[in-house]
Amino acid sequence: MGLKNTNINDLQLNPFTLFDKQWCLISAGDEKGMNTMTASWGGLGVFWSKNVATVYIRSTRYTKEFVDANATFTLSFFPPEYRKALTYLGTVSGRNKDKITESGLTPVLKHDTVYFKEASLVLICQKIYSTEIDPLHFEDPETDDEIYPKKDYHTLYIGEIVKVLQAQ
């Protein structure tokens, strides 16, 4: 088994369960430095006539520095047996330790970014837009207190999906 190039139009998936139930790793970086974080919020769709992925990263997350510093990021989705590694990567900061090595996953540096060998699906995304969530635009004012009690607002990133790799 390995990851092979796949035509995006051949994908058969449910984006709602893909993010919410299966989770993914948002990763960015290169041989000089990389980081990853677990995410369960995101979306797939079409924007500006491009196939895109949308992800959200809190201002306090170390991975945000890598996504901001690089033109590309990846979304790596895994089979269920990797749930423990994804849980670990979502609770430990890469600022303080080499969490990627400790997770047991194998980073692959290719296509000007990083993803993971064990993934069943990888979306390689070229950033095309980002913006910080602005609490002035919440339609429901309770969202601010419920989701952002620490005022650590997410940055929304839209990435054009430029390559799809899928386990064969």
Overview of the structural elements:
This protein has 168 residues and is an alpha+beta fold. The chain has one domain (3-167): Pnp Oxidase, Chain A (Roll). It contains five helices and ten strands; from the N terminus they run βαββββαβααβββαβ. The strands form two sheets. Strands 1, 2, 3, 4, 5, 6, 9 and 10 form an eight-stranded antiparallel beta sheet that branches. The chain is globular. It starts with a strand and ends with a strand.
How is the secondary structure organized here?
Blueprint: E1 3-5, H1 15-22, E2 24-30, E3 33-39, E4 42-47, E5 50-58, H2 62-69, E6 72-77, H3 83-91, H4 99-103, E7 107-110, E8 113-116, E9 121-132, H5 142-147, E10 154-167
Antiparallel strand pairs: 1-10, 2-3, 2-6, 4-5, 5-10, 6-9, 7-8, 9-10
